[in-house]
User: What shape does this take?
Amino acid sequence: MGFPLPDVELPSPVEVSLQVGSFNPASPPGPELAFFVAGRPGPKGSTNRSAAGFTYGASKIGKAWQQQVAASVPTQYTDPTATIARPWQIVVVFRFRRPKRPKYLWPAHADIDKLGRATVDGLVDAGLLSDDRHVTGLYLRKEFAEPGEPEGALIEVWR
Assistant: This one.
């Protein structure tokens, strides 16, 4: 027993292209922006405190992923004056390489909420979103990449 998830058909990373649109009543609504970020998704973990009292991030992979997301935002959206009007809804599908001998039938690489946090913070760092407090919906999913597909994340930003 559980909450049924919608069956979403995703395009392959090769088919994903920059999609910028505005509302048109004649056509069905779609994402304001959709793009693929190649690389290994990493969580934004908790912070640790050193013996001297300094705090530092616990996950080096998460910081690298956050920077990769920020670098992958299409250039016309990296200007802080060109941020997408709020509120936003974000859809992220994380794709991980399937291990040779997986322990589970699903990707269990990291906590999905921490993956989402690092991704949204990367969108803010790039200037695409002015502040993550204006995100009103966040749909996250993890799946294994098919053979030949890269690891990464498909990101859609909706108004």
About this structure: Residues 11-27 have pLDDT under 50 and may be disordered.
